[in-house]
Specification:
The chain is about 55% helix and about 10% strand. It is of the alpha/beta class. Strands 3-2-1-4 form a 4-stranded parallel sheet. Helix 5 links the parallel strand 1 and strand 2. Helix 2 packs across helix 7. The N and C termini lie far apart (about 115 Å). Keywords: Coiled coil.
Length: about 230
């Protein structure tokens, strides 16, 4: 029987070293990928939290009275004819020919009388404040006019006790608050009523400026004088 010799298998040390290098490189890549994965997860979590904060901020803004009033003003600017339907009828009346009348006798012309300029009208929208806060604002506004009577103010408020403020010398216009309106007229949007009310005030008083009062921080006298 022939003898079988067992020849020991010798491995090239270069192959073993190359294998160790490849394993070390693979382990390094795995650690790098794990680190990047953890970083990306943290980044995604932070973006999701930021998204949730922005959604909550946007929801609070949409529910705020300032946002609704601003939306009503924007709708008025975009479509003033629809917001003020009487403007078209007024334009048609102006286009009609004037009735003929008998000319009156000419009188000697006297010296021209210079008419005093009428101060412009500013509309103050005070929505969502209790009576004491509205009264405090009206008193502050009256002090501001005593310092600088450069305009005529009109205050629009949804405070049901507005009648108690008429003796303060400031013109007060009333708009029912949202809860009262929706309780009595749920078939019509309160935003539409607000838009129509604003358009009528613009038309009736010729307002040139609108100031929306922040109910969380009503302006002081110094702020009104700016």
């Amino acid at each position: 029987m022939p003898e079988t010799a067992l020849v020991p298998v010798t491995r090239d040390p270069l192959d073993s070293q190359r294998a160790r290098w490849e394993l070390a490189a693979m382990a390094g890549r795995l650690r790098m990928l794990e680190s990047r994965l953890v970083t990306e997860r943290h980044r995604i979590d932070e973006l999701q939290r930021e998204r949730d904060r922005e959604r909550r901020r946007a929801d609070r803004l949409r529910r705020s009275e300032s946002y609704r009033i601003g939306a009503a003003l924007l709708a008025l600017l975009k479509n003033p004819v629809r917001a003020t339907p009487r403007l078209a009828r007024s334009a048609l009346r102006r286009l009609r020919p004037a009735p003929r009348t008998t000319p009156a006798l000419a009188l000697p012309a006297g010296p021209p009388i210079a008419a005093e300029p009428t101060p412009p009208v500013h509309l103050y929208v005070v929505i969502g404040l209790e009576f004491d806060a509205v009264r405090e604002f009206v008193l502050t506004l009256r002090q501001r006019l005593q310092v600088s009577p450069d305009h005529r103010p009109v205050v629009m408020t949804d405070c049901s006790s507005f009648g108690l403020l008429r003796d303060l010398g400031i013109l007060i216009e009333y708009l029912p608050d949202r809860a009262t309106w929706e309780r009595h007229r749920p078939d019509r949007s309160w935003e539409d009523v607000l838009s129509e009310r604003l358009s009528r005030l613009y038309r009736d008083h010729g307002s040139v400026r609108t100031i929306i009062i922040d109910r969380a921080a009503p302006p002081t006298l110094a702020e009104l004088l700016r």
